[in-house]
């Protein structure tokens, strides 16, 4: 908050702009030129809006810097020019978007020969993108007048910045009608067909990758837009072109009718996988497919399947003869040949084709034995988990999918569902059961000899569990059970022994391990507890819960075998060791740990005093108290009980007390006092001199001393209560009718700081002490039992002051 003290300084740009011959480069050399521009400094904005300055800014981002410029400052001015033009200042946007000469100069960058300078291309794309967002109608009209715009964009599609600009034209145009006009214009310019032509072996990898990514993004953006805009009746023209059978056939012919090129093959497969995406969320947070699954944007177009089906044999051949790969040496051995990106993507494509569950596609895969080849790769490349997960997906879908209806027949038209041909092929031709058992035994043998556990064992466990689950509860359970029963006797017995012993033991171990790994893998967010998987029903009474979803850890035994007696003995020994540090073995002083009984000193033995006493005087007169068990009940017949003479005032014949022999109160009486101060308990009044003082509860030690004179009397009391040792003295002056109360308190040992709480825990109710009010200004005191302060600062008119 420097402006509060007027510490901000005026920008040097204002002073610089006052010069008549200032140049654009001089202004751009200032460190705060970008901040001042975004803050819309009027002098700076007016300077930049000059025709020559605007032209120079566009020139900086569209022309190669001179080769003579030092490399570290070579792109300084192009970078600052791009930032100034994209600072989102309305005056600059208006001038650049409405001046056709500047647009033509900017557009001229696309006419450079490929490859474009990637840094300048990013500057050009950024400036044109913000113009498309701020001035869509002007920029679209300008670009549509250029007949070579789409050609130049396709020509430079190998530059990532140009690909981003093409996609921004599909996303940054807000008016719906204008966006639809742009899509129709691009479709008329055959942008889809031109991008498809870029994905062929004759082009380089950059064009393959960017063209494929552009087509994939067009598919996703178009489907998302159709889902979000519910009232849109017209289909997306670019998506419709991409889903045509001839477009897909052209894609496939580019990779199969020419030389094998891994980059082109992978790029085409990526496009096909995007076309097969039927359950992709339309936006973040939408986890399920919308109700309109029958809508063409949420189901695989039949024309795509028709174009792919004749090429399944070519993809199958790629599994057998992939593009030539060099021998790959790894830490555990040599891969000759390695799996390669081509075969891995072919397996992903097969998984997508199986998900479509089309009869003709399934029959083609069965005839070619594609699943058998994939299983061979699974057991051969034991460390490639990218391959293993795709094979697991394939087997899981085959086991769980209902039988595919014949082509041209709807699911509801068939009376009795036939058996799944894929499951029969998987169990009989591929011999999945036998291969699982053999691989498991081979791994156990290898581990017994000191080898490592094979990398596919985790996925193999899940495949075996999928078979067991679907045979019991799946839609094809009867068929799976029948196929297992038809196995040779030896294979069937091996399978049953495997699932009852090895598989069961593995599942038990995994249940214990994964019960907590699920917790550790959760993302730490604000609603972490809600995401973990518990619900309110799991915390209700078990009788009210019908189904508890989190039942995997029900069989886990968390019992711990501990030796309680040994732990208790160790704890007591440690306590004694710590307490011993505070004790002095050679000292003759009293043991501070012993419980004290209440002891009252006879008046004849009290030490005389001429004034008020302090804590030091009172502690000298403390006597050795007898030890008593704090839990032992008090015996009313012991010597501690106070003796009271009742014969002098009690008349046994009448049953009434006789007070006629009492003399009037005298101020000089040593046993009475005119002071308004008196000690009392919650039950009875306490004699200031301690003659009729009541018994103290067990666990307290009290020593009372008192002195008296004609005009002044004093009483001193020392109380030891747990960790607190208190000495209080009361001096009463009968002449001035005042009382002086002093209190001294200190802790004996930290360990006894909770002694008052211990009394409550033992069932002993601490004595609640009240005191008559003292004159204003007297110090506060504390309850000697519960160790709590109570206030004595209220006025004399109040009768009592309660203990806090």
From TrEMBL:
Highest taxon of the lineage: Eukaryota
Positions of transmembrane segments: none
GO MF, one annotated term: protein phosphatase binding
Region Disordered, residue ranges: 582-642
Bias-annotated ranges (Acidic residues): 614-624
GO CC field: cytosol; nucleus
InterPro entries, per database record: ARM-type_fold, SAPS
One family name in Pfam for this protein: SAPS
Protein family (similarity comment): Belongs to the SAPS family.
Protein name, per record: Protein phosphatase 6, regulatory subunit 3
Lineage: Eukaryota, Metazoa, Chordata, Craniata, Vertebrata
């Amino acid at each position: 908050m420097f402006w509060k003290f007027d510490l901000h300084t005026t920008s040097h740009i204002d002073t610089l702009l006052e010069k008549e011959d200032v140049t654009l480069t001089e202004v751009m050399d200032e460190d705060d030129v970008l901040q001042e521009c975004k803050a819309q400094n009027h002098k700076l904005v007016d300077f930049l809006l000059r025709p020559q300055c605007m032209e120079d800014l566009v020139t900086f981002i569209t022309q190669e810097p001179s080769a003579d410029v030092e490399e570290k400052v070579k792109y300084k001015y192009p970078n600052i020019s791009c930032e100034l033009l994209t600072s989102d200042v309305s005056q600059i946007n208006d001038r650049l978007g409405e001046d056709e000469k500047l647009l033509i100069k900017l557009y001229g960058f696309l006419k450079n020969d490929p490859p474009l300078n990637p840094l300048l291309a990013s500057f050009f794309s950024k400036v044109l993108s913000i113009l498309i967002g701020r001035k869509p109608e002007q920029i679209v009209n300008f670009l549509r007048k250029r007949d070579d715009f789409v050609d130049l964009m396709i020509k430079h599609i190998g530059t990532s910045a140009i690909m981003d600009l093409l996609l921004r034209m599909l996303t940054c145009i807000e008016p719906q009608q204008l966006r639809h006009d742009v899509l129709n214009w691009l479709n008329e310019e055959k942008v889809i067909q031109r991008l498809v032509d870029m994905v062929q072996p004759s082009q380089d990898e950059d064009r393959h990758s960017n063209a494929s990514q552009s087509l994939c993004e067009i598919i996703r953006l178009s489907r998302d837009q159709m889902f979000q805009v519910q009232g849109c009746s017209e289909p997306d023209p670019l998506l419709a072109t991409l889903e045509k059978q001839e477009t897909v056939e052209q894609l496939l012919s580019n990779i199969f009718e020419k030389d094998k090129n891994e980059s082109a093959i992978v790029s085409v497969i990526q496009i096909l996988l995007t076309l097969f995406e039927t359950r992709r969320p339309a936006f973040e947070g939408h986890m399920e497919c919308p109700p309109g699954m029958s809508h063409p944007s949420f189901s695989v177009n039949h024309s795509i399947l028709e174009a792919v089906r004749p090429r399944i044999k070519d993809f199958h051949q790629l599994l057998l003869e992939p593009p030539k790969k060099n021998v790959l040496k790894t830490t555990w051995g040599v891969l000759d040949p390695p799996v390669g990106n081509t075969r891995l993507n072919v397996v992903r494509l097969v998984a997508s084709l199986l998900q479509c569950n089309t009869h003709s596609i399934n029959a083609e895969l069965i005839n070619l034995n594609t699943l058998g080849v994939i299983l061979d790769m699974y057991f051969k490349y034991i460390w490639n988990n990218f391959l293993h997960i795709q094979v697991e997906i394939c087997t899981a879908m085959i086991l769980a999918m209902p039988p595919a209806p014949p082509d041209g027949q709807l699911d509801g038209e068939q009376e009795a569902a036939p058996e799944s041909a894929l499951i029969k092929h998987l169990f009989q031709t591929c011999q999945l059961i036998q291969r699982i058992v053999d691989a498991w035994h081979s791994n156990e043998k290898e581990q017994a000899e000191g080898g490592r556990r094979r990398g596919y064992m985790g996925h193999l466990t899940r495949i075996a569990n999928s078979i067991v689950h679907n045979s019991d509860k799946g839609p094809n359970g009867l068929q799976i059970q029948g196929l297992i029963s038809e196995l040779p006797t030896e294979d069937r017995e091996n399978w049953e022994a495997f699932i009852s012993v090895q598989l069961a033991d593995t599942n038990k171990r995994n249940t214990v391990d994964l019960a907590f790994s699920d917790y550790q893998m959760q993302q730490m967010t604000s609603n972490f507890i809600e995401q973990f998987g518990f619900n309110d029903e799991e915390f209700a009474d078990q009788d009210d819960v019908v189904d508890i979803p989190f039942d995997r850890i029900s069989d886990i035994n968390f019992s711990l075998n501990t030796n309680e007696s040994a732990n208790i003995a160790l704890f007591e020994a440690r306590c004694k060791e710590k307490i011993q540090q505070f004790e002095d073995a050679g000292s003759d002083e009293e043991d501070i740990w012993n419980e004290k009984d209440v002891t009252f000193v006879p008046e004849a033995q009290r030490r005389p005093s001429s004034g008020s006493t302090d804590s030091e005087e009172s502690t000298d007169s403390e006597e050795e108290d007898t030890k008593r068990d704090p839990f032992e009940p008090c015996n009313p017949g012991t010597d501690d009980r106070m003796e009271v003479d009742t014969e002098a005032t009690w008349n046994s014949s009448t049953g009434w007390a006789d007070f006629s022999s009492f003399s009037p109160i005298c101020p000089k009486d040593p046993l009475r006092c005119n002071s308004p101060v008196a000690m009392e308990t919650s039950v009875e009044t306490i004699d200031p001199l301690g003659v009729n003082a009541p018994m103290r509860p067990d666990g307290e030690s009290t020593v009372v001393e008192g002195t008296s004179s004609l005009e002044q009397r004093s009483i001193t009391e020392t109380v030891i209560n747990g960790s607190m040792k208190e000495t209080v003295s009361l001096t009463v002056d009968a002449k001035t009718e005042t009382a002086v109360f002093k209190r001294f308190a200190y802790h004996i040992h930290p360990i006894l700081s909770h002694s008052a709480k211990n009394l409550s825990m033992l069932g002993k109710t601490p004595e609640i002490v009240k005191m008559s009010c003292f004159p204003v200004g007297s110090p506060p005191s504390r309850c000697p039992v519960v160790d709590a302060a109570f206030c004595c600062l209220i006025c004399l008119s109040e009768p009592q002051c309660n203990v806090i």
